[in-house]
């Protein structure tokens, strides 16, 4: 069998571990060949590929990023390019394609699958917002990095009796904010799922200082927004992929808080440091298991599926189900966090 593999969307720690796992499983267990397409769907649209054998993936387990490169492609281009992508796959004699990606990549995988291309998807994203799987690899690494950095901010905030707002990634889902906030003992956690009430944030900050606390740490997901009409908020518009362009919610909230509380406020944006570098052992293991099970599914003819973690087991879920909606933070999970904030 010949397997095609690509990594799409924003990169994420563990992508190289999956590529290695797919190549080793295909080569060693099935005697199959693997062709990697470069820079996500662009590699299929532009017919750019590289053969991947066991030697080519040596040393990839611990390396961050993706050796195949990644890119975002606008959904219209993908829809318009289905015939070209199919032609590339035919030219390389690909029997099954394994796209590794987040919401956008898996949605495109579903479209291709509906068009008759045999596909087995693998979910990745530091945002952990893919439905149908308990976790995506990359998330644990991002949370670990964010937690370590927030731990460090506690001591400097304390020394200066400041409010420190830490902006973490999380476009539509606040999982990183929720977990890193809980792990690092943040006093405030703001997520995209629930617009925040600025009056409430001001009250919380004033109360903490009034009862003698030395500082306040707030974790703010980049996609968090104020309740409409409660604070002037500059929007960043929409990019070419239809994504909201972020305009610095932590900075904007910080300015408002400084004005209304009289306290010194600083905003720190963690940004891409959350996505770079080597994956945690948890993510290496999850990525390796996803690669193994996806390659097995490809050989057993389970197409149109995505590998998923359910409890401790790896299962298959239909791609249609996985991309039907995003997995966002539930009110129950927010309530758990609120028991330790405020
Ligand atoms: O989708 C994952 C993600 O890390 C988001 O949390 C973040 O908004 C986005 O990627 C950033 O993407 P880019 O690399 O295009 O700046």
From TrEMBL:
Its main location: cytoplasm. The keyword Kinase applies. Mg(2+) binds at residue 103. The active site is at 127 (proton acceptor). Its cofactor is Mg(2+). Substrate binds at residues 125-127, 162, 169-171, 222, 266, 272-275. The record marks 104 as: Important for substrate specificity. It comes from the Bacteria. Its EC number is 2.7.1.11. GO terms for molecular function: 6-phosphofructokinase activity; AMP binding; ATP binding; diphosphate-fructose-6-phosphate 1-phosphotransferase activity; fructose-6-phosphate binding; identical protein binding; metal ion binding; monosaccharide binding. It is found in: Cytoplasm. Pathway: Carbohydrate degradation; glycolysis; D-glyceraldehyde 3-phosphate and glycerone phosphate from D-glucose: step 3/4. One of its GO terms (biological process) is canonical glycolysis. Keywords: ATP-binding, Cytoplasm, Glycolysis, Kinase, Magnesium, Metal-binding, Nucleotide-binding, Transferase. It catalyses: beta-D-fructose 6-phosphate + ATP = beta-D-fructose 1,6-bisphosphate + ADP + H(+). GO terms for cellular component: 6-phosphofructokinase complex. Catalyzes the phosphorylation of D-fructose 6-phosphate to fructose 1,6-bisphosphate by ATP, the first committing step of glycolysis. Belongs to the phosphofructokinase type A (PFKA) family. Mixed-substrate PFK group III subfamily. Homodimer or homotetramer. HAMAP family: Phosphofructokinase_III. This is ATP-dependent 6-phosphofructokinase. It comes from Blastococcus saxobsidens (strain DD2). The gene is pfkA2.
